[in-house]
Amino acid sequence: MKFLKLFILFIPFYGFGQKIISDDVNNFWKAYDKIVLEKDSTKQIELIKTFYINKGTPGLDGIMRARNYSAEEYVFAINHYPKFWNSVRKNTLKASQFSNEIQKGINKLNKIYPDLKPKNTYFEIGILRTNGTIIDDMALIGSEVALTDKSVVTSEFDGRYPHLRNYFDTDPIKNVVFLNVHEYVHTQQKTTLGNTVLAQSVLEGVAEFLAETALNKKSPNTQIEFGYKNEHQIKTAFEKEMFSPFLGNWIWNNPNNQFGMRDLAYFVGYAICKKYYDENSDKKTVVKEIIELDYNNENELEKFVEKTKYFAKPLNFYKNEFENLRPKVLEIKEFKNGSQNVDPATKTITLTFSQPMNVKTRGFDYGPLGENNVLKVQKVIGFSEDKKSFSFEVDLKESHHYQSTVMNFRDENNFPVTPFLIDFKTAD
Question: Which of 100, 104, 281, 394 has the most CB atoms lying inside 10 A of its own CB?
């Protein structure tokens, strides 16, 4: 009997196996206090490395990789946002106080999804680019964003992070358990980045909906309520872009869009999942299905979305409409694409597009033959006055096979170009 009591006692600690770790928060403030007393920038960088980065947990390494944070950027933020840091410090030091509530939230998620796998949660201090994310199956909380409230000062940002003021006004610290459960769902999914707007929307919507379902608490994110109030208009716009690989109109964007609300992909994905869940009686099977969905398997994703009947028409209709709206490369002016004897003295290549393009976006990728055959741009000349042509300078070798894929070009409505393979050989 005595043994049994001890066994029961230790079950809550070891049973599920995940840990909630906040050591890095304290280390950041130790480094911060040293840095603000030091005027030499080189020494400041050494201090952030010595007392924060080099002492970091795997979670700190993870969030730095996930958001490309650097020692130099930490020092810049410390030096330029003193009022912000002073206003947020007290709240971030409460990180460890949320461990029990987060544990309870994860246990509730485990009840609706019994196959839940143990993953660790890390509270970190980042540089204002995420409230929460995951990498390497770790849930990462950006405490300087997630543990904020209305009192946090943003006047020093000078136009940077335009969405944060509205976010801080929602008192995020009150919803840190919800945020963590959302991120914990991501640790169970097959990917964290979808190949299309639709894939990313469903991926995020699943996490948002399951956090709400597990906690039996309405989502605190303003996109959900706003989305239902404006669902027809949002759905109409989404239908045109759901197959786009360009995510920027729908997620991780700023509120200066046609709706005045950022991250509406969360709402669309949430609405898809909720409709499917509400209309099916076998709730546990639905939860298992949506959390284990392969979001980047085009056939599997589309089969699932079709089953929800969220959209009025078959997905192939929207896919064809999207392809018809995409700009296309019509020709290369200097020679016919596919030519086998292009003059190696050619110095300029001009692409002609089917419609005016966004002059701020452009990009190339390798072709099927890889890096050794890529067409290297020596100098960008730029777009023509009508924005339908783009020219660049090259330095060609004799008797060489060149390939590059035209990617990341978008038209004035931000529709991405249909990928176009530049493929030719130069003469001897």
Answer: 394
Q: Is the pLDDT of residue 393 over 90?
A: yes
Residues 151 and 224 in one domain: no
Residue 138: DSSP 8-state: E
Is residue 14 pLDDT above 50, yes or no? Answer: no
* Residue 110: Cβ within 10 Å count: 18
pLDDT of residue 3: 38
* pLDDT surpassing 80 at residue 13: no
Share of the chain above pLDDT 90, in %: 91
Nearest to 106 by CA among 184, 218, 40, 33: 184
**Who contacts 243 (Cβ-Cβ below 8 Å, separation ≥6)?**
196, 197, 198, 318, 319, 322, 323
Q: Are 35 and 175 within one domain?
A: yes
CATH number at residue 355: 2.60.40.1220
Tell me the Ramachandran region of residue 216: left when phi exceeds 0, alpha when psi lies from -120 to 50, beta otherwise: left
**Pair (278, 155) in one structural domain:** no
Helix (H, G, I), strand (E, B) or coil at 21: strand
329 φ/ψ angles, rounded to the nearest 5 degrees: -80, 120
Whether 95 and 68 share a structural domain: yes
Least confident of 219-233, 247-261, 337-351, 402-416: 247-261
Both 20 and 144 in one domain: the answer is: yes
Residue 273 CA to residue 287 CA, distance in Å, equals: 9
Confirm whether 3 is domain-assigned: no
Number of domains forming the structure of the chain: 3
Residue 242 zone, left/alpha/beta (φ > 0; ψ -120 to 50; rest): alpha
Q: Which domain holds residue 319?
A: 190-324
User: Is residue 4 a part of any domain in this protein?
Assistant: no
Would you state the pLDDT for residue 255? 77
Helices (H), 279-326: 283-291, 298-308, 315-325
Looking at the fold, whether 174 and 229 belong to one and the same domain comes out as no
Question: Is 5 part of a structural domain of the chain?
Answer: no
Structure tokens at 180: 């963590």
How do residues 191-238 score in pLDDT, each as one tens digit? Answer: 989 999 999 999 999 999 999 999 999 999 999 999 999 999 999 999
Q: How far is CA 350 from CA 330, 377, 426, in A?
A: 11, 12, 17
Same domain, residue pair 292 and 419 = no
Helix/strand/coil for 423: strand
Q: What is the pTM of this model?
A: 0.88
| Confidence band of 16 (pLDDT split at 50, 70, 90) | low
